[in-house]
Write a structure and sequence with these properties.
single chain; 3 domains; two-stranded antiparallel ribbon; 5 helices
């Protein structure tokens, strides 16, 4: 029988399934006292994915951009961190078996400099305000991307060009406001779509062309406002209201 428990952080009720309880028992793990949402929040709080700060390289004293708040930790610029100008082994220390591992790890983490940004500088061209990126050209505020060009205000892109305000998009070009899109071209405000071109306001569609306001459709073209359900209608209304204000 599944257990219902109250999260010690949020106060919300969460469920411990029979499978989870069995796994914890077999591996001698205490049953969770925190909800899955709060556990995920705790894990991801360690990583700052989309914020950049003005800081100083602790090695060269030069002004740099860093994803780590400079008042919290010593950081090296991405160039210095990847170079042979410093030796990380100088921060090494003997392991004390009488003390908890994570306690010692936390102490070591506070001493060793961290890279200001997770980038390969040699693969970037005119793309200073990015993080978690390789092979980018003319990109701005792009986070977690690979092989992108002329992309702005995006996160998790791969093989994209001229994509703006989008998330989790790949192999796409000339797109705006897209989420979880693959192989889109001139696609605007689309979500969960693949192989769609020259279309606006799509949700969960495949192989559409010259369409506007479609949901859960495949292999059609030149269609206007077809099969609109609860996922798509609110987005169209919001964008229409914003457009009216700007006229």
């Amino acid at each position: 029988m599944s257990q219902h428990r109250v999260c010690q952080i949020s106060g919300n009720t969460f469920v411990i399934s029979d499978e989870e309880e069995k796994y914890c028992t077999v591996h001698d793990i205490p049953l969770p006292t925190i909800s899955p949402e709060e556990r995920l929040r705790s894990v991801t709080a360690f990583d700052n994915a989309i914020n950049l700060y003005h800081g100083e390289c602790a090695f060269t004293k030069e002004k740099i951009l860093t994803s780590i708040p400079p008042e919290r930790h010593h950081v090296y610029s991405a160039e210095i961190f990847a170079s042979d100008k410093w030796d990380a082994l100088t921060f090494g220390r003997a392991y004390d078996f009488s003390r908890p591992f994570f306690e010692q790890f936390a102490e070591l983490l506070k001493l060793v400099p961290l890279p200001s940004r997770l980038v390969i500088v040699s693969t970037l061209e005119n793309s200073n305000y990015v993080n978690g990126v390789t092979a980018a050209k003319n990109c701005y505020l792009l986070f977690n991307g690979t092989n992108c060009e002329d992309c702005l205000f995006c996160r998790v892109l791969n093989q994209c060009k001229n994509v703006l305000d989008s998330f989790s998009t790949q192999n796409s070009e000339l797109c705006y406001g897209c989420i979880n899109v693959n192989q889109g071209y001139q696609l605007f405000w689309a979500e969960n779509c693949s192989n769609c071109n020259d279309s606006y306001f799509l949700f969960n569609c495949q192989n559409l062309k010259h369409c506007y306001g479609c949901e859960n459709l495949k292999g059609i073209r030149n269609v206007l406002l077809r099969n609109i359900k609860k996922n798509l209608k609110p987005r169209i209304l919001v964008v229409m209201k914003l457009g009216n204000k700007n006229i």
